[in-house]
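TASK: fixed-backbone design
INPUT:
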C-alpha cells in the first residue's frame, strides 16, 4: 500500500529534475525583469520590507522543497492509514484534527507551504544559509516522522 506514495514522490522528483523542462533552462528563456517591493507596515521592518530580487537558486533548495512535499504526502498517507488500522496519533496538535482525514491533509499542506514560504523569503533576503538550514531541519524532522510511521504501519500488518 506504500506504492501510491512512492509513485507520487518519484513523479514529483522527476518533474523537478534540473534540465527536464526546457522552460526552466535559463539559456532558452529570458528571465523577466520584474522587480516587486513588498513592504510591511511602518516601523515593523522584517523580511517583507526588503525588495524581492529574483535570483537563481540552483537545484539544492528546490530539491529540498520537493523532498519536503514528498515527505509530507507520505506522512499524511501513513497517518490516515495508521489511524484507519487502529493506531493513535502521538502528536497532540495533529491529534485534535486526526478524526478528519481532510483536516490532516490541510495541516500537512499548510505546514509544507509555511516552511517553503519562509525559506523562500530568507533566500530572497540574502539569508541563503538560513534558508538551506531551515529546509534541512524541516526535511530531517519529516524524515524521522515518516520513518516512525513506516515502522508503525509495518507492525500493524
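OUTPUT:
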Amino acid at each position: 500500500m506504500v506504492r501510491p506514495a512512492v509513485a507520487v514522490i518519484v513523479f514529483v522528483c522527476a518533474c523537478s529534475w534540473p534540465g527536464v523542462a526546457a522552460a526552466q533552462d535559463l539559456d532558452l528563456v529570458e528571465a523577466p525583469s520584474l522587480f516587486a517591493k513588498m513592504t510591511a507596515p511602518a516601523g515593523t521592518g522584517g523580511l517583507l520590507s526588503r525588495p524581492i530580487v529574483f535570483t537563481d537558486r540552483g537545484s539544492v533548495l528546490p530539491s529540498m522543497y520537493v523532498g519536503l512535499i514528498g515527505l509530507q504526502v507520505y506522512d499524511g498517507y501513513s497517518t490516515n492509514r495508521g489511524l484507519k488500522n487502529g493506531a493513535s496519533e502521538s502528536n497532540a496538535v495533529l491529534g485534535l484534527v486526526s478524526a478528519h482525514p481532510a483536516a490532516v491533509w490541510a495541516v500537512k499542506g499548510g505546514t509544507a507551504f509555511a516552511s517553503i514560504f519562509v525559506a523562500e523569503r530568507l533566500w530572497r533576503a540574502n539569508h541563503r544559509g538560513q534558508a538551506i538550514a531551515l529546509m534541512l531541519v524541516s526535511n530531517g524532522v519529516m524524515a524521522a516522522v515518516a520513518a516512525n510511521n513506516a515502522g508503525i504501519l509495518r507492525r500493524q500488518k
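COMMENT: The first strand starts at residue 36 and ends at 37.
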